[in-house]
Amino acid sequence: MEADSDGGYEAVYRAAMPSVASIYVSYPDTGGGGGAGSGFVYDADGHLVTNQHVVGEAREVDLRFAEGDWRVGRVVGVDADTDLAVIRADDLPAYATPLPVAEAAPPPGRPVAALGNPLGLDGTISAGIVSGTNRSMPTGRGFAIPDTVQTDAPINPGNSGGPLVTLDGVVVGVNRATAGENIGFAVSPLLLRRVVPSLIADGHVSHPYMRVRTVDVSPTVAEANGLDEPRGVLVVDAWYGPAGAVLAPSDRTTRVRGREVPVGGDVIVGIEGTPIDSHEALVRYLITETEPGETVDLRIVRGGRETSERVRLEARPDPDDGADGRRRRLRGR
Fold first, then answer.
1. Is the full-model pTM beyond 0.85?
2. β-strands 314-315, 70-79: how paired?
3. What is the DSSP letter of 312?
């Protein structure tokens, strides 16, 4: 259901809050304790979206809706790398209708509201604006979530998994965490649209992976490597695999104005015709535009000359299974 943007925060609360649920998770192995978060109705089949860290290892959760109705929800899919999860519940209350999801994040300055269950307080709205987009947020798993939306709307414990909506009731993010006073983050609608259908269909999602580590080409890195301008990302490590077979990593360091700077190695400046000016841009393109098993065209600077290489993408390994523990660096290419 869409709210009337002219009605402001009161209107969006009336329109969107009935589609938001408080999520309660029990942890029997910890003596009966539990946790709480938020979620929202995604489709007419009874699927709700929340954060992976809200549901954890749970298979079932309790859902409490705006008018006090309770339902049991079954966790049907989780993705720790984007911190998204999907729950399905039968026979949702008639007033709990799906919220529309934006095609992309709104521009900075757009008024937004965070809806959810902060600190156990059901049915809470907090107001703010979009403070920035295309942010990168670490997950503690060795990978970062790209394309996140930054907001100054207060996002407190319990808000996690709830929707960040514009004043017309459209979801522009899944609230995830707060990093400090007046700084909160939400998983972007672009990632939500890409990941959630796979979680519904398969219970999981595979993300593409190049098996390289890069650093942004800052003016200092450009100076150390004799580059004409600071653009792209320098390959610092390349491990055995399709990308490691064709990309050359840095092979030494030097000191520039008192700083150790990597020298040598390929500089990635584009992928499939899209310019790459930062590690964030590279990861964002991979996770939103490609699939494991695809072959992509990389535009690189090697030895001062621009050229191209074709690289097949792998499936991102699970950091918990040690799949990427064989980090043997390729040197001297």
1. yes
2. unpaired
3. E
User: Would the CA dihedral through 168, 172, 176, 181 be positive or negative?
Assistant: negative
SS3 at position 51: coil
How many Å apart are CA 107 and CA 130, to the nearest integer? 7
Q: Are strands 252-256 and 233-238 parallel, antiparallel or unpaired?
A: unpaired
- Is residue 66 predicted with pLDDT exceeding 70? yes
SS3 (DSSP) at 191: helix
Query: Would you please indicate which residues are annotated as catalytic (active-site) residues?
Result: 53, 83, 160
DSSP 99: P
Q: What is the chain's mean pLDDT, rounded?
A: 89
Q: Give the contacts of 12 (CB within 8 A, at least 6 positions apart).
A: 3, 113, 125, 165, 166, 167, 168, 169
Q: Under 8 Å CB-to-CB from 199, ≥6 apart: which residues?
A: 76, 77, 78, 79, 84, 85, 86, 205
Q: What is the pLDDT of residue 239?
A: 80
Nearby residues of 265 by Cβ (< 8 Å), 6 or more positions away: 234, 235, 236, 247, 248, 249, 250, 251
Nearest CA-CA partner of 174 in 149, 152, 195: 149
Which of helix, strand or coil describes residue 82?
coil
Q: Specify whether the CB–CB gap between 27 and 20 falls below 8 A.
A: no
Task: Tell me the C-alpha distance between 290 and 310, whole Å.
Answer: 14
**What is the band of 324 on the pLDDT scale with cuts at 50, 70, 90?**
very low
Judging by beta carbons within 10 Å of its beta carbon (0-12, 13-18, 19+), is residue 86 exposed, middle or buried? buried
User: Tokens standing for 196?
Assistant: 């959630």
Helices (H), the chain: 8-16, 52-55, 189-202, 219-224, 279-289
Q: Would you give the DSSP letter of residue 25? A: E
What are 232's two structure tokens? Answer: 């792209």
What residue type is assigned to position 16 of the chain?
Answer: A
